[in-house]
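Form 12-C: Joint structure prediction
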Amino acid sequence: MRRETLDRLQAARQAGRGVVLLTRLSDGAQHLWPDEALPGTLAEAAQAALDSDRTARLDIEGEAWFVQPHNPPLRLLVVGAVHVAQALAPLGAAMGFAVTIIDPRRAFATAERFAGVSLNHDWPDEALAALAPDSRTAVVTLTHDPKLDDPALDVALKSPAFYIGALGSKRTHAKRVERLREAGHGDAAIARIAAPVGLDIGAVTAPEIALSIMAQVVARRRGR
Amino acid sequence: MTEDILATAAAWADSGETVAIATVVETWGSSPRPAGSMLAVTASGRMEGSVSGGCIEGAVADAARETMTTGSPQLLDFGISDERAWEVGLACGGKLKVFVEKLG
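Section 2 - Result
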């Protein structure tokens, strides 16, 4: 791989733009799509690889090609700079997620508590609207506080986020569901919320709860 | 494909290392790592990432060093019918193809 190709590939991912690397296996010749225009069949395969986030093998005129999508990182948007969030942020990063912690309470969302993590101090609804969750984004609310969690869930439920989780007991969630219904969300929307959040592994400590949440996020991501 | 092997490869090249990149391009049967999995190797022996569960990394690293010297990419075949793969022990019984290329 030419260094210049690698640098362009990494720059695209950093900019949040998906690109596809196409390699001719006979001699290692490479193209980066869509930066380079490609003939129909290759361009179509590249688009399909990017959309599905899956590699492909292709044979064109006797030449074997490997088609590899390089999407920008998945995103994990966490509302509430609480103890569980401190454990969740490094776990999410380890799973390849770009993690953002959202909390207008500056005493919680400090660089000291979240070293190296992207912090956002806007109100959760404004923050989420600006961050625009897409189908490669997971949203988790952890504050327990309806003033902070509800507006975030409202925005998340109107987005194509692949995972929406909300911390809180069954009782807390039942009340939350009532409020969300009043805000106009129907059964299908409510059913998208993972609550109580996380896989049931009997988690007790903050790191254990973070692990159960991350495991559930990965399960959804992988279609389980 | 979450681990950023390419970033590691770029950083190694920046620090003056000679680097090769191995990528799984095709699998059959019970391969532990999917197509697209990558392994970066340096001439000095550093390794990051994986193309199997550890079964063939040694053989791939050998091929990578050869590619660093010649500059020519290679397409490696591993499978239970392959004597060399049997030697290095593809215990999973899977088959896979690995593309090895020099960086730069």
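Section 3 - Comments
Strands of chain A lie at 19-24, 30-33, 56-60, 63-70, 74-79, 97-102, 118-120, 137-141, 163-166, 193-194. Chain A touches chain B at residues 1-3, 6-7, 9-10, 23, 25, 27-28, 53-55, 57, 66, 68, 70, 73-74, 95-96 (CB under 8 Å).
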